[in-house]
Design brief:
Layout: H1 2-6, H2 9-40, H3 49-61, H4 64-88, H5 95-133, H6 136-142, H7 147-186, H8 190-200, H9 203-229, H10 234-264
């Protein structure tokens, strides 16, 4: 009877959901344990500043072209569809304000986060996963060096430092791109657009944007490194770890964004 039950689709679906749930809980536990270990590493802080600078260049400069492309094109698309209708309804003086609020509060930081995950997060996960399956991490432990302190610290610090800068540059680029699109599609002057940009923005919006960017940088770096550390089973495991890092990073920044929206704009 037990053999027949295990052959049913009901059991197979149950087993699939149970395995996914077990993987979710174990991955979450690993991320939290690595997070605690990372903060413990600040007591010794054996990371060189050269390594931090290298990771900052990787996190910020290398990712900037694709980040600007995504944020800029998204802003242009939105401005093309909004500006024309706003001008028709007599609300042309509010186009810049609307675009600035959209980009600073949500679009700039979210799209920048997606770009960073796609390029840098996946790279961090695959790099550490390769080190794990090729036993390089074991060699680091033989030298009595904690791999979490050695590998996580410069990458997470770089993410926390560079993510706000990337978001600021991308947001400015997006606002400028929106101005060009609004001018071309609706004839709205650049002066009217940029004059209205400051109507809807406040220091509260800018502060929340920076805090959100810092949280995103920390979460992306931590999750990518943690998923890379959990890799196993050779080359296949590297691919699984990289995919898991990207998925978890996407989900995490959406949840963080929801928390910030509920806390500061509700």
């Amino acid at each position: 009877m037990k053999i027949l039950y295990k052959g049913t689709y009901t059991y197979k679906i149950y087993k699939l959901f149970y395995e996914q749930y077990e993987d979710f809980v174990s991955t979450l536990g690993e991320i939290m344990s690595y997070c605690i270990e990372f903060f413990k590493g600040f007591k010794v802080f054996n990371t060189s500043y050269k390594e931090i600078i290298e990771q900052c260049a990787r996190f910020g400069i290398s990712s900037l072209p694709i980040t600007l492309s995504i944020v800029g094109m998204t802003s242009i698309i939105v401005a093309m569809q909004v500006a024309g209708e706003m001008v028709k309804q007599g609300g042309g003086n509010f186009v810049g304000m609307l675009m600035a609020m959209l980009i600073v509060r949500e679009e700039g930081v979210i799209m920048a986060g997606f770009a960073i995950i796609s390029m840098i997060g996946s790279s961090l996960a695959s790099e550490i996963a390769t080190m794990k399956v090729t036993e390089q991490l074991d060699a680091i432990r033989v030298l009595k060096v904690n791999p979490v302190h050695y590998l996580f610290t410069p990458r997470i610090i770089a993410g926390v430092l560079m993510m706000p800068l990337v978001v600021i540059v991308a947001s400015l680029f997006g606002i400028a791109g929106g101005a060009v699109a609004a001018n071309i599609t609706s004839g709205l002057s650049y002066k009217a657009y940029f004059d209205s940009v400051w109507f809807g923005l406040s220091m509260h919006d800018l502060n929340v944007c920076i805090l959100k960017a810092i949280s995103f940088g920390f979460a992306i770096s931590l999750i990518s490194c943690a998923c890379g550390m959990g890799a196993k089973d050779g080359a296949k495991g590297v691919g699984i770890a990289t995919t898991k890092a990207v998925v978890w990073s996407f989900v995490s920044i959406v949840i963080i964004d929801l928390i910030y929206a509920a806390a500061f704009f509700y």
